[in-house]
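Supplementary Note 2. Why include the ligand at all?

Several targets in our set were suspected to adopt different conformations when bound, so apo predictions alone were not considered sufficient. For every target with a known small-molecule partner we therefore ran a joint prediction. The input for adenosine-5'-diphosphate is given below.
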Amino acid sequence: MSPRPLIGIDLGTTNSLVAVFEDGAPRLLLNPHGEELTPSVVGIVDSGEVVVGACARSLALTRPERTVAAFKRWMGEDRSVELGGREFSPPELSSLVLRALREDAEAALGVTIEQAVITVPAYFNQHQREATRRAAQLAGLEVQRIVNEPTAAALTYGFHERQVDQKLLVLDLGGGTFDVTVMEIFEGTLEILSTAGESHLGGEDFTTSLVSHGLSKMGRQLELAELKEPLLVARLREEAEKAKHDIGASEEGTMRLPDTEGCVEDDSERVTVSASEFEEIVAPLVERLRGPTLRALRDADLSPERIGEVLLIGGATRMPVVRRMASELFGRPPRDSVDPDHAVALGAAVQAALVADDRAVDDLVMTDVCPHTLGVEVVKEFGSRQAQGYFLPVLHRNTTVPVSREEIVNTIHDGQTEVIVKVYQGEARKVEENLFLGELAVTDIPRGPAGQEVCLRFTYDLNGLLEVEAFVPATEKKFRTVLRHNAKSLSDAEVAASLRRMQQLKFYPREDLENQRLLAFSSAALKELDRFRRQDLEQKVDMYETSLHLNERGVFDHARQELLRALSALGLPYQEGSDAD
Ligand code: ADP
Ligand code: MG
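The joint prediction is reproduced in token form.
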């Protein structure tokens, strides 16, 4: 056995999980509430401590300004988010989730954890991958490998079913991202054939559609309401989320429409949405799932009938509309044996075992592809006219990695001694529509007529790092850069400063998190009640809050029991040590 624990982390938009590979198999580790899924929500409580997970999610109902969620959508973007009076970058927020998972794993395994395999949506670009790596660094984790989420899910499948020989398609619809991956399993070798997706499409968009529907019944419009009545929108979102689950389970769901303060009461107005109405409301979103699915099939050169199994991953694939789309497209129901919530984290742990050469996986081999085309900007000549801004692909999307490929470019002016190689990622013909990754200056080209050769070599490794080399045959000079940093990359000093700021942030003590969660739950529950029923509960909540600071076990136990009893008497039972939903 490896002396180091082999940790795999699924850092999701909505939920994150951590798994370990131990004694020949992957298993999930639990958070302080005894749960496998930790909501990817970060909050800062009044005392300035950070809370992550269920606690932060409950806090979001009463204090939306003190919490932030779904920040994975902003990874790779140059923006900052205000939280509890401080500014955070998206990688800093993600690092807090990673730090919480790291601490959970350390508590479960009783050892220090410094390394992990982390998953990202297959469709993440270089900037988004780099931001993920930065988040790990800020959480004190060295990334052993960045793995694509559907690939990780397929590894879980492949780990258990090594003998099968067939082509698989993984549809991964999470909270905020959509990925499709086509792969082949043959005698324990898992070969990724193609991948496609959208990094801004997920289950949250389905919830948002319901929120919009509810708001329109109230004569409101989403963008405006978000600005003017954030409490109303936050509460309606909760209602819509529940309704979305109910529509899947029982053919219809009901949202209570909150008031401007975000309160709902027994006599609040309601909107009921049937399964068929829901289908109509979300039809444009379902349609958007079809495009990438067909593109992945085309890139793998396969028709839908050639796919042996369809695996559905990600919580949002539980929606019947999504399952139906998949069944119709492939002419058969999707496979049920893989848990849509767990497969990615378990696969990340299997990947960690592969990296560590664990004997339990020595007959398992996996190859992956690069998800986007990588290339350079070139000038095109049309007769005597030169036009700039064209994209010359060097590595085409869905090439198996690791890979290295050469392409020759030429100088365009007589006497030109320098070429700035500008590297882009994307599928568009013109570079302005693609993503700029960085540049490499090639100098000291001997003066001469236009058309001097410069050989470019692109090397893409298993982690998705791109190395660009240039070689000038006339001088035998070589130039090289590794494009692993964001175009607006941080300096070492900035990274160090960010690391210090993150280390200074105190986490709410693990052992008291459950208490904080009950407090947040009951504060949110208060909002459900009318004036009369509210009074009694409010008193119990106040007592409980006070008892948290008293350090007297007897008083605390009593206050907690009283509060739990009051909640259950009001028909709002709190589930200890499990999800409050
Ligand atoms: P991520 O990988 O992005 O963290 P998850 O795989 O945890 O996301 O999926 C979260 C999404 O799945 C959310 O949008 C959630 O509403 C949705 N979801 C989870 N369970 C269900 C369900 N039973 N019905 C409909 N949507 C669901
Ligand atoms: Mg996921």
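The mean pLDDT is 90. The longest helix spans residues 230-250. Comparable summaries for the other entries are listed in the accompanying table.
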